[in-house]
User: Fold this.
Amino acid sequence: MTRKTETMDLKGNDYAKVVERVKEFRKDNPNGLIETTPTIDGNMIVFKARVVKDKAQESSAEATGHAYGENKGAKAFEKLETIATGRALAFLGYAADGEIHPRTKWKSSTSTRIKSVRKQYRLGQRKWTIPNLSLN
Assistant:
């Protein structure tokens, strides 16, 4: 059964703020983990967010999200962290439209999407375009 978290209207569409999706994630996964890591190179930042449903279980579902942008001060830094976290939550079914998808439905559709993207990279149809940035 699909649930829906609190949303707001954003350009005519329902949008669940990341803070609301984090609240739902925490409620559903009291032993969950959300961690973020910035990589700064000059005036550019890459944020990686890692979300784990149950940090006590090695085989727990987890997802990562990334955000890339210019370092234009504290607000830009925070915004990129929030974007990365929102993307990771969406990969675990806590969608930007406010829907919280059942694991089976999410898993099959996301699995198909991930396989498609991996194939595009393998065939050279997609390329990483992060200039002058080393990710270690």
Notes: The first strand starts at residue 3 and ends at 4. The two ends are 40 Å apart (CA to CA). The helical segments are 18-28, 74-91, 103-122. Strands lie at 3-4, 8-10, 13-15, 33-41, 44-52, 62-70, 99-100.
